[in-house]
């Protein structure tokens, strides 16, 4: 959230008011005034991917420890 807040505060400085032309369609969208939504979606998607990866890694480690414990018990 801190990163998002910092990006929103600096968006006006990075994206100038007079910039309307860019090479390609996606570049032109990011140079518009309302580029904050695209940044928000990017940060949210990255955060969701990191959280999902950490959860999957923890579940995998837990399963591995459970299997090891079951093998040691037999």
Shape descriptor reads rod-shaped
Unreliable stretches = none
Number of strands: 0
Largest beta-sheet details: none
Radius of gyration: 22 Å
Backbone structural class: mainly alpha
From the N-terminal CA to the C-terminal CA, the straight-line distance is 48 Å
Tell me what you see in this structure.
This protein has one domain (2-73). Helix content is 77%, strand content 0%. It is built from three helices and no strands. With 74 residues, the chain is mainly alpha-helical. It starts with a helix and ends with a helix.
Question: What descriptors fit this protein?
Answer:
mainly alpha; 74 residues
Question: What secondary-structure arrangement, pairings included, does this model have?
Answer:
Blueprint: H1 2-14, H2 25-30, H3 36-73
């Amino acid at each position: 959230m801190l990163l998002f807040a910092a990006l929103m505060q600096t968006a006006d400085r990075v994206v100038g008011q007079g910039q309307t032309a860019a090479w390609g369609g996606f570049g032109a969208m990011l140079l518009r005034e309302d580029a904050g939504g695209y940044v928000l979606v990017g940060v949210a998607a990255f955060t969701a991917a990191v959280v999902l990866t950490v959860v999957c890694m923890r579940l995998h480690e837990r399963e591995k420890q459970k299997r090891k414990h079951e093998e040691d018990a037999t």
